[in-house]
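In the laboratory, one determines a bound structure by crystallizing the protein with its ligand and collecting diffraction data. In a computational setting the workflow is compressed into a single prediction: the sequence and the ligand go in, and a structural description comes out. We illustrate the idea with adenosine-5'-triphosphate.
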Amino acid sequence: MKTSQYVLELLEQNRGKAVSGEELAAAIGVSRNAVWKAIEELRRSGVKINAKTKTGYFLPESDNSLSKEGITALLGDERFTVDVRHTVTSTNDLLKQLAVTGTPEGYALIAAEQTMGKGRFGRKFYSPDGSGVYISLLLRPKMKAEDSLFITTSAAVAVCRAVETISGGRLSPKIKWVNDIYINQKKVCGILTEAAVSFESGMLDYAVLGIGINITTPEGDFPEEIKGIATSLFGGTEQDNIRNRIAAEVLKELGGLIDAPDDKACLEEYKQRQLLIDRDIVVIKGDKRIFARALGVDERARLCVRYEDGSTEALISGEVSVRAAGN
Ligand code: ATP
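The predicted complex, in structure-token form:
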């Protein structure tokens, strides 16, 4: 590892606290001059490193930039390889390219901005710089293709748990079947799982799990077309080191997905966290919109609904979208 990376790692581990050049040099096993050069190199590459006379160098708590070292220091889980990029087209698209070259499970590609962020059915996910975090995680679960939906359901639970931890329990995220996280009836996070299947075995070859989270209100607000339906975790309130903290917390919670990709306990929590159960909804099938009542989510993560004529149906996520009635 380069000295500059070591220095950044140590500063991240002590974020907000000054570490002297001497301490850094001793910990890394290089000269103080090498530390000084590494600090200058990091500053030139855009890392905000403050210095306090006589006490040393530190990363300001308030800095909200996203960094591999920042996430890794908070995560402390060697199953993950964290790769942070500033701007990408789509974290899912890039990670799929890496997946076919044999990249191992646990590789997390995290970006500050996506120019072509995606939702389901080719929809767009608005992913501007500065206000969100966009995470894709590569999984290689031993799982039948038809069970891949459980990756999305477990990820939705993981995001809810992470948001609760980060907000100290102040936020109560809900899951809007099948792949969206809502706060106060508005969407704060979208999840998109894309998988490749082996034809011979019908098993998943790999899955790329993508998660986009709105952390603060984007500069100049959300675009007109989603203003009424989108929200962010913290609105206009700045939080210290928040992008690294959220990325690390989400990955921590996703660790469970590597251990047990189709954990049934997680499905129970998924059911309990639903936004639309016992509410009137609109089922959208192609260009048809049908009124219904959402009854619950079943063991196969289908949404069970009752239509106005009294008939019931278990909806499969790949075919429909649902909305709260009136939205
Ligand atoms: P469903 O999953 O039920 O089909 P959905 O409309 O949320 O619902 P997705 O494909 O999951 O569809 O996500 C894409 C949609 O999310 C976009 O069509 C847009 O309405 C909305 N959207 C796009 N960007 C954002 C964002 N940054 N925050 C919240 N919502 C967004």
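The chain is about 30% helix and 25% strand. Keep in mind that any predicted model is a hypothesis to be tested, not a measurement.
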